[in-house]
Amino acid sequence: MPIADPGVIAHAGYPTSSQPLPLWRDICNTGPHFRWHSSGATEMTGNCHNLRDSICSRLIGSRYALLAGSLLLIVLGWFPASRVAFDQSIESLYAPDDPHLQAYSESRRLFGGDEFVVVAWSEPHLFRDGTDQLTAESSGRIRAFARQLSAVPGVHGDSTQTLADALQFPYRRDRVRRLTEGTLLGLDGATTAVVLRLLPVAEAPVPRGRTIADLRTLAAAHDPPAYVVGEPVQVYDMFQYVEQDGRMLFGVSLVVLALVIGLLFRRIRWVLSALLVVLAAIIWTRALLVVRGMQLSLVSSILNSLVTVIGIATVMHIAVHFRVLRRRRSRPDALRQTCADLGPAVFWTCLTTGAGFAALLVSGLSPVRSFAVMMTLASLLVLVFVAAIMPGAILIGRMGADPRRVMLEAPIARSLGRIVDMLERRPVSVAVAGATMAALAAAGFLRLRVETDFSRNFRSSSPIVQSLRYVESKLGGAGNWEVNFSAPDELTEAYLARVTGLADRLREELGQPPGAQPQPGRLTKVVALSDGLELMPQQVLFQKFTLEDRLAILAQLQPEAVAMVYNADAGRMRILLRSLEQQPAETKDRLIADVERLAREQFPDAKVTGLFVLLTFLIESLLSDQVQAFLLAAAGIGAMMAIAFRSVRVGLALLIPNVVPIAMVIGAMGWTGLPVNIATAMIASVSMGLTIDCSIHYLFGYRRARAAGLTRLDALRVTHENVGLALVFANLALILGFSVLALSHFVPLIHFGILVSVAMLGGFIGNLVLLPLLLRCLESRNTVSQQAR
Length: 789
Prior knowledge:
Elements: H1 6-12, E1 34-36, E2 42-44, H2 46-61, H3 63-82, H4 99-111, E3 116-122, H5 136-150, H6 163-166, H7 173-180, E4 191-197, H8 208-221, E5 227-229, H9 231-265, H10 268-292, H11 303-325, H12 331-358, H13 366-395, H14 409-425, H15 427-444, H16 463-474, E6 479-486, H17 493-510, E7 523-527, H18 529-533, E8 539-540, E9 543-544, H19 547-557, E10 566-567, E11 572-579, H20 585-602, E12 607-609, H21 611-617, H22 622-644, H23 648-672, H24 683-707, H25 712-739, H26 747-788
Antiparallel strand pairs: 1-2, 3-4, 3-5, 6-11, 6-12, 7-11, 8-9, 10-11
Helix pairs in contact: 2-12, 3-10, 3-13, 9-10, 9-11, 9-25, 10-11, 10-13, 11-12, 11-13, 11-25, 12-13, 12-22, 12-24, 14-25, 14-26, 15-23, 17-20, 22-23, 22-24, 23-24, 23-26, 24-25, 24-26, 25-26
């Protein structure tokens, strides 16, 4: 009889009710209920068997009450779930005690914040020939456009800066022009800009999104069209894209995965039951977030999509197992045995998936930690609602209950069985090949780098990237930041000389050469209070102007010019800096460190901060977070598996076929130069929690086959052809679900979806290839131990 014959399958993989098998000992605590003999078979005392049957009987006996209760919970949870908020503040990306955030918050409190927006456009006939004077036409156009922009709700109109206003300065017009180059005037002499300062979000009369949308509308209507750029715009676009993508990707993944179930099993009952599980888990995850006062963040916007793929993959296993049992059993008996066979596996897969997400709690980024809480909770809710919904959904009514066979199912099963034969013939070759690939991948870890070019978070066709390219090529950079330091409560000439000395040194050692194109790693602009004061005359005729007089004149000619850089009450002064936003991480790090070093030589308490710095260090901790979260996930999942299978060796063995593919994916990131960003930093621990599911289902299936009396080789064939088939369908669903993230506008989510899909595929292959080899080694060792005793 061939090993794939239904009779053998029923006996080995899916036994009758008269053949109790070793299941759910993992949640019993009344003693060692299992012994793994030298043959690899197991035996079980009655305690866990009774507990398993009792739980299954209660779930099936109360199936309609549980199904009705679940539907009621969906209705009750809908309203609170709809109230979950999305935190779109830059502060939400950091821990409250983070030193970079504290420095940034202090600067905003002292100087009012530097949420600048630059609106730039080409103005070919700016100047009168051979002079530093604007033409009347260009001056009028600049002023008119600036008035329109300043009138937009949410813009601090008094702080608007234009080239027309700057060149009205009555003194030293040539120096004024040089001072405006790179901010209000392009290096080509044919580009100009209006620099706007946005009101703090708490003080603005309208939401930040409305302000930015109005500015973009005016810019698009301008002739020629203008470009809108600035860190506040980047942050807003990031959150907007992620929020929109979250809604869109949830709908798409739901439709795609529903179609997968429909095409595979061709039963609407199974599609609807899977959707109910997903919907219930999502609604109550969101509802519990509202109860706890938590908000969705940058990362957790993909919560819905992830819960969808986890829930539907679980239903896939149930459908395949139930369908095989229906060949020889009634529906209630098949469901009862499915519950008994898959209950422990589903229980532990949900726990280990949650453990993988929980490992992200070690991250230094607040959105990653909140995502860890949400997904851990969601994983456990999937377990709850699978138990509550599936029995009633499967047994209710008579029509369309049994999943149908999948096309090409038999060839797929036979191909899976042949893998076992290949492993039997060449176990050493396969092991050596796996070890070699793992070693090559590990070397790629040393080449990992983080991504701090914030523009790379968006598609190249997005408005923010196009605007950045224009402004950075024409105006010398869109990265605004500062260095601030202590100052006396009353300014003196001696103190200002020190400030001038620092500004000059920054220009000389780190500044952009005059007239050159902006270069990475250089400051494109350095602006100090002393620059404005140098434009003020110290004497007119016989009247001398004191420092106080010159400060008053400067403040009168340019409102907020002094208050923007000097706070007498707090005793702080700052120098404003500008550089390219689009430059590599290591270049930004080096530039920031150099500025801080030079500043502290003159002012020991100097601090470098600003949105440019904040966004740079946002990704800085991700490399260490990646390693810590992965190690924690591996340790937690390994411990769970040791408890589940009452064997530390089994727990460790189960990690190998899952760790190797993930290590290869991360190593490949290093070799290919794909950077670590806010989403890809989660790949290791998330993938670990998902790929271990394959190992759990495989090992439970294998032990069922061994307990039924099959030899090791036949048990592997049965497990490959049956559990392996379910793994094919489940991983197909997972990979398609994660691949939907490739439709995102937010590039980190695209990378996350693709890389997790690759890791899932690698984990699937690892569990079909490496895990059988490990089981062979474990059984051989058990045999030797038994003989020694």
